[in-house]
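Researcher:
Attend to token order:
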Amino acid sequence: MILKREKAEAQEKSITLGSEVRTLKEKLQHAQTEAEQKLKENSALQLKSQQMEEQLEKCKKMLEELKSKLELQKDGYERQLLLVQTEIEKKLFLLQTEISGDSEKSKQQSHSKELAEMLNKYFKQDGKQMKTLHQTTEETKQQLQLQVKMDKLQQEKTKLGHDLTKARSHIAQLEEDKLTLSSKISALCNEQPKGQFKQLLADSEWKLTLKDDEARSVRGQMEPNVREIKSLQEKLLTLGVSTNPENQRVNKQEVTETGHHNVKDKDAASLKTEHTVMQTMVPSYESAKCNVEAEILRMKVSSELPELKFKFLGEEVLRKLETGLIAGEEVQASLAQHVGKPTAIAGVYVESSKKKISFLEAAEKGFLAKTYAIEFLEAQAATGSLTDVTTGQTYSVVEALERGVVETGLKDKLMQAQRAVSGYIHDGKKLSVFQAMEGRILDRYKGKKILEVQVATGGLINPETGVRVPASAAADQGLLNKETLQGLHDPVSNPKGFHNPDTGQKAYYSEILKTCLYDIDGGVFLFPFGEKHLTDASPASSHRVSVVDSSCGSEISAYEAFKGRHIDKRTYLFLSQQESEWQETSVVAASGIALHVITDVKSGRQLCLESALSQRFLETAELESYRSGLLSIYEIADIIFSRMVVVEDVNSPIAGLWDVTRRKRLSVLQGFQQGFTDRATALRLLEAQACTGGICDPSSGEKVTLSEAVKRGLIDEAMKQLLQQFEQAFNGIAHPKTSKTLSVSQAIQENLFPKDAGFRCIEFQLLTGGLINPDTHDRVSLEEVIQSGLVDKVTASVLKEEKFHTKSVTCPKTKRRITFKEALERSVFDSHTGLRLLEATKIHGYGAKSTFHYVWAYKQ
């Protein structure tokens, strides 16, 4: 009974516990459902909050965009007003120069009327622009409630009115400026000898009178021809009218119809002959007209030069111009980059297809990284405009975005870069790039990068005027200081900020610009991409490819493009200055005659003007034109190169080194001094030169004696002492008893010449064409030497077997030990002299050389 009772109690407890468990489960499920509902509510609230935050950020962005648009519109209108003012000043300056001539009063009144009309036109345009500006500012004011900016615009309007009144008052001061200009011209006239100045004036007047006479004669000859042509045309019209009714009559007047046709044919033939005469006469008139215009332009440039020289030309350039070392057109070419079209890199030239593409298209095709493309687009914007590479047209960033020249995603970056031209607004002031750097508004690294681009493409841009200023004159306007200018190409203070699209290596913008091509189709600069390396100078060619025509695929040098009239003289001189740097010096020859030598500092080439005259590479009239400034030094050099015929000297030793990095010729001594080779290798190469004809000058191709080589800096005194016996090997060794001239081999047999030096002389002479007869300096082959008994068979076998040749030379390029024969095989012929050059590179490093350097050199 007790067990039954306990069992019943346990069952009741289990029932109660089960009911409690069920209630607890129900409560748990209810709590889970409530938790899920709360989670859903929380997620919904989070979504709502995120949406509200996004809406808030969008509103902020809209407000910022509206503010930036208002600032951009204001800056644009300010820039337009500044441009209008500068144009007015330019027109006033042109009027002043026109007034300075001996023109009639009626012309002055007409010019003043035209100027007044132009001023009224500009005033009307200014009024329209101010109206549009007022409307746009009213609309944006309603959205953003910017009443303060409207007040500023009204103040600027009043300032513009004051400026216009100043411009009107400036007209009254033109007469005073005329007097000052005449005083300057008289001062310049007094500086030159009066007789010479009068002679120049008389020559110019005589030329102008001749041109006028030619033009009058041509016009006089043209007038009767024109009358005859008109009469013949009338005859043709009458004949045409008369033949129409005759063609309608069938088989009635055949005889008269054929007669009319014969007369018509005769008249047509005479008309053709008269037309050909006119075609031959018109070009002569056009050429005479062009010559007259050229004379007038030259006189105009000479009159404007005193005004320009204080703004854009340095003292050194002025000194060279006054002394006649540089021509006026060279100065114009240097000034062209300040006042002409910017020389920013517009795109990529694909060498394989000979087509041009934009940077973004090149990035899409995998030619270069997109970050590199953006770098060059930012550089374009920082110079004032973006270039459409297909047409060559330049646009602002906004216009380029509207026309689809660049992607819309690049808007912010390009607009930020364009502020280098429009200016950085701070505290109501417009700051330049350098001023923004100094005020810590612009990062110094980015600022120096922009400054380097602007200097490379023509000069710093003054945001107040929008005009480029040369780096030498930028300090006067507060756009730069000397310390920053000197450090623009210092890798420590200003690291290289661009990437070479071909190699990916860091480089300055100016370095990349020098490797670019000028495209005739569009007049833009393109970076060449491919394995041809068109713009790299080489010893095999006297000129590099500098000009291409992407429309037809032609690739030519700057001089060829200039002679073919594909580019003007200004562009030719600018491209020539990128490729070479010619300078003239005077030297005294051994005979005591003064010689004039022009030297290319970049490539190491030299040309003697007197020798070019004697060899008919240069005409006397051309030299006189160069002396008078009509031809530049670059044209003289190209004229000589175009007429030179250089033949490869198969008997040439290694005359010098070719610096692969700088693309420059070096003498053996220069290669040793600059670390391209060791002294032992330099001595071996000089020994080969001395015993085969003389020390070679790779800049001119001359072979000189040891004494003359010391004067020219080709060897030093210590080398001269070591090379004297090798010079004797070429001229012959005198026997002490018989005074007979012996060759090297004979002197060795007589024990009159050291054997080790003698064997080297024989090796050098045989490898360069044969043993040299000291009496006649003719070459003798090894077989002939053996037959004559001058060299025994043992020595001959040693000379024939290459395994006996010693590795006495260190290759300047690979830094490996090689024989002299291998050095000759690796050399290249120089198109400038016909002599052999050995390519050389320098291993760059810091401190002592490590094992890596030697492993790298061995693998080369």
